[in-house]
Amino acid sequence: MAARRRAETMEENRGKLIAAGRKAFASEGFAAASMDELTASVGLTRGALYHNFGDKQGLLAAVVAEVDGEMAARARAASADAGDDWERLLAEGEAYIAMALDPEVRRIVLLDGPAFLGDPSHWPSQNACLEATKQVVEKLIADAVMKSVDIEAAARLLCGAALNAALWVAASDDPQSVLPKAVGAFRLMAEGFLSREG
Hints:
It comes from Sphingopyxis macrogoltabida (Sphingomonas macrogoltabidus). This protein is mostly helical.
């Protein structure tokens, strides 16, 4: 019983720290966020942060995973009304790119994430997106919607194009004007995979 309560307390503390980190990283940025202020804001100590995440960068990785996972869910939801698998695939990519306008996504996932955690293609959340895209690509090839092409190569290019377009929008001085350019180029590039006129 005590072990279960201890595990529940650790999980609660982990959740509090992720929420506090998310708030601090979104408003102040990773580099400027104070670990002492962040932990104190939820009634915990720096020791709790170290115990749960190893360090501040470990907390950022957990926050990025949470936000990036939510981005994938939002992209899927945005594609729900698309007419077929191909249009859903494009709608998800376009929705992912458009999320670069969201201040929290922009700061945490697209600016600070790569700067402090390295190449996003190595993040577990991005690998989950890749696996889902591979399944869709495999089905589209089997249905002769897409040309016969290496499934992993196509999925990596589609995911990478959406991510890099979002990174471009996020880093731009004028994201609103860059967004339609990024989305248009993404769609045009993706259409090169079609085996017939879309």
